Amino acid sequence: MNLIAEFPVECYDLPATLASGQAFRWRESQPVWTGVISRRWVSLRQEPGCIVAQTAVAVADWQWLRHYLQLDLDLHQVLATFPQDDVALQTAVRACPGLRLLRQEPWECLASFICSSTKQIVQIQQIIALLSRRFGEPVPVPEGHEPVWSFPGYARLAGVSEADLRDCKLGFRAPYLRATAQMLATGEADLTRLHTLSQEEARAELLKFPGVGGKIADCVLLFACGFPQAFAVDVWIMKALRRHYFPRRVVKPEKLRRFIRTHFGPHAGYAQQYLFHYMRVKQG
DNA sequence: TCCCAGGCTGCTT
DNA sequence: AAGCAGCATGGG
User: What is the DSSP string of A119-187?
Assistant: First the structure.
């Protein structure tokens, strides 16, 4: 039972990973990043060759954190599957080697990305913080740290009024989040078995939720359901794809999806994250 | 003031 | 099938 643990890592850029727009609950305070995973307050710090984690409540088994951070993934094996002659992609990788994908809890991930449409990442972080503070449960925090709350479960949000959600800055997304929470609360839909389906089947299930289209579905498949080939196309990615792979050409969505699958390969989602991150940092 | 943001829905052609 | 306005809210 420990409050602190050290995890040896190779090629893991913790700050870039936590700030790369896949999870929205992490805050940086000097060298330390604090966040909430499930019902645990966690602080993470990158050190040479390892990540140091601290919790508020003693931990017997750290597997939940290893899983969240995907510490057992061999990144070099992933990078080896990328097209080696793709200059744009290789440039993006070299700009931030060590950028990783997390494995998030499906409901929080789905809810977060329902809130994400036509929002900047900082605003999504604000919305998630408001939802947690207002509808989540207090989480134990070490002495002297800001209070934090767990992300509210779908059972809780299913019973919240649309007006209360709009108070959390959800805008037109409020009815989407509420209806999605209700589908899960009634058992009409289920997120826990998505990882057992094929990627296409799981995607079709996600598309049944109101406010969830192809982009958000792919984010959930990639960031929460363990489908590394899922490739989310947002405005930034579309800009990169058009510039590097389809210059001066109109490309239909279905053809684009086929190109992505065949060109980027079995870990296309990782490629997507490198391209997205590179576009963002290059623009500023 | 205008434009854009990790989009989706529903209504037009 | 494909195009497009509308949808809230905040930042540059």
Answer: --HHHHHHHHHHHHHHHS-EE---TTSPPEEPPPPHHHHHTS-HHHHHHTT-GGGHHHHHHHHHHHHTT
| Minimum-distance nucleotide, CA of A171 to C1' | C8
Quickly give A212 CA vs B10 C1' distance in Å: 14
| Model confidence pLDDT, tens digit, residues A119-133 | 999 999 999 999 999
Which nucleotides of strand B come closer than 7 angstroms to any CB of the protein? Answer: 4-9
Lay out the sheet containing A27-29: strands in order across. A2-8, A50-59, A40-47, A32-37, A27-29
Answer yes or no: are the C-beta atoms of A33 and A14 closer than 8 Å.
Answer: yes
Residues of chain A with confidence (pLDDT) below 50 = none
Task: Spell out the residues 6+ positions from residue A133 whose beta carbon is closer than 8 angstroms to its own.
Answer: A149
Query: Which nt is closest to the CA of A231, judged by C1'?
Result: B6
Angstrom CA distances, A73 to A70, A113, A152, stand at: 6, 24, 29
